[in-house]
Write a structure and sequence with these properties.
Layout (H helix, E strand, L loop, with lengths): L1 H13 L4 H11 L2 H14 L3 E3 L9 H8 L11 H6 L19 H9 L8 H9 L11 H8 L3 H11 L12 H8 L6 H12 L1 H5 L3 H8 L3 H12 L27 E6 L2 E6 L7 E3 L1 H12 L5 H38 L1 H6 L10 H8 L3 H8 L3 E3 L5 E3 L6 H14 L9 H10 L6 H10 L5 H6 L1
Length: 457
């Protein structure tokens, strides 16, 4: 019996976790900032690991000419003006100052509106554009604009009408309903025409989701009413919010979190970029490599030195390999999201976020679930819309519902806030079935006010 116990004890003690697996798991779990610290710590502890220095400068054409054809560098007669106008100080040019800024909403509209109005109304056009608020709405009445500029009411109305035909669609509207109607002014399908009629005369019924009442009013099938609702939901309530109002350049709304993975889309297709240090920036010390080769071929007994050199060379190689494996795993996850969550990545709308679990992702990628958990824990991804979101939003249904509630409340009529029951109905129309008390719970969790308090606010 004692012999069996001794055998079992030897088997148990002989089972050891591969240090390379531990290292790989550790680096995979680190976010970008922590990974940089880990690399610096390893460089300080491991003499066999080196960081490549990219301090080589390209050879300039002038340097080549200085050697092979120095006469070509001498100034000729036509170069006199260049010499005369050249600056004599040593201050270097800040080329970033010469980069043109992206257009803000004002510049974007000026470029469209001025060609559409007579030259004598240019000042009026600038005034109207400057009167837009951050939502892209024109709240100042036509009469007050006419009085302020001492011009006719007809001229103001002509300029405002021209402004409302500009992009983004809905700009220059007086209120939310007006903004939505402007986006449906060229309605062609029967669903869009019904949506326009609903906005004009049945806005309250739309907000309350009274499908049957609208169907009876217009003598149509309920399915057509639901299709009209879907057309309304696709509209942009605030056309100016994607632009910067004022002299600053237009910037996408982004989180302050630093992304570990960036997904972008261009004319050439999708791309996945892994942020952080590259494994190619590290290498094994040449001197340690050479010494390892010398010790291997030597007939002398350098046991301690050989152990030291082999240990640190192996450790450096494992560190570089683990860093490369981390990048491959994150890239595989990013490409998986492109396939499974294209709707959300394209729009940034949580309505199109498909249910997903880490277990499902791990199975589809042929990875262990713990590997996916480590790769996505406490990390962020930047989607093509410019927003930076936590990886958690892809795996936690509760976050999806919270974000959808926030989107619904952001586009509600401030004069007639939606109740929790109405929000639950709107969510149901988007394929999310939750009870009223669930909506209330998510509102409390995100510090959103009730409909009564939102009206008073």
């Amino acid at each position: 019996m004692s012999n069996a116990f001794g055998t079992r004890q030897r088997l148990e003690t002989s089972v050891r976790i591969d240090p390379r697996v531990v290292l790989s798991s550790h680096l995979l779990q680190l976010a970008q900032a922590d990974l940089e610290q880990a690399i610096e710590a390893e460089l300080a502890e491991n003499p066999a690991l080196e960081k490549l220095q990219d301090d080589t400068e390209p050879i300039l054409n002038d340097q080549i000419l200085q050697t092979v054809a120095p006469s070509e560098l001498r100034f000729k007669g036509e170069d006199y003006e260049y010499i005369r106008s050249s600056s004599n100080d040593d201050a270097s040019t800040d080329w970033t100052e010469l980069t043109p800024a992206l257009p803000d909403l004002r510049a974007y509209l000026v470029a469209q509106l001025l060609p559409r109005v007579p030259a004598n109304l240019t000042s009026l056009a600038h005034y109207v554009i400057d009167s837009l608020n951050e939502k892209g709405y024109l709240e100042e009445p036509d009469e007050e604009i006419a009085l302020a500029l001492n011009c006719s009411l007809e001229d103001v109305q002509a300029v405002v009408t021209a402004l409302q035909s500009c992009e983004p669609a809905g700009v220059g509207a007086r209120n939310l309903t007006d903004c939505l109607l402007l986006q449906l002014r060229t309605a062609e399908s029967i669903e869009q025409r019904l949506a326009r009629a609903i906005l004009r005369t049945r806005m309250d019924d739309f907000l309350a989701r009274r499908t049957m009442r609208i169907a009876r009013r217009y003598g149509v099938m309920p399915d057509l009413v639901e299709s009209a609702f879907a057309e309304i939901v696709k509209l942009t309530p605030y056309p100016g919010e994607s632009f910067q109002i004022g002299p600053a350049s237009r910037q996408p709304k982004m989180s302050t979190a630093s992304p570990d993975l960036i997904i972008t889309r261009s004319d050439t297709g999708w791309s996945v970029d892994i942020r952080g240090p590259e494994s190619t920036s590290l290498c094994i010390s040449r001197s340690y490599r050479q010494r390892e080769e010398q010790l291997r071929e030597s007939s002398k007994d350098y046991r301690d030195e050989k152990r030291h050199v082999q240990h640190y060379v192996q450790r450096a190689g494992d560190f570089i390999s683990s860093l490369e494996q981390r990048k491959k795993t994150l890239r595989a996850i990013g490409e998986y999201l492109l396939r499974e969550q294209a709707g959300f990545l394209n729009t940034g709308s949580y309505q199109f976020l498909r249910p997903l679990t880490r277990t499902q992702m791990a199975a589809d990628l042929n990875l262990h679930e713990s590997t996916v958990s480590r790769a996505t824990a406490d990390k962020f991804v930047q989607i093509p819309t410019g927003s930076v979101v936590s990886f958690d939003v892809f795996f936690r249904p509760a976050l999806r519902v919270q974000k959808m509630i926030e989107e619904i409340l952001a586009s509600e009529n401030p004069d007639n806030p939606l109740s929790d029951d109405r929000i639950a109905e709107l969510l149901k129309g988007q394929g999310v079935h939750v009870a009223r008390r669930t909506v209330n719970k998510y509102r409390d969790r995100t510090k959103l006010l009730s409909s009564r308090k939102r009206r008073s606010a």
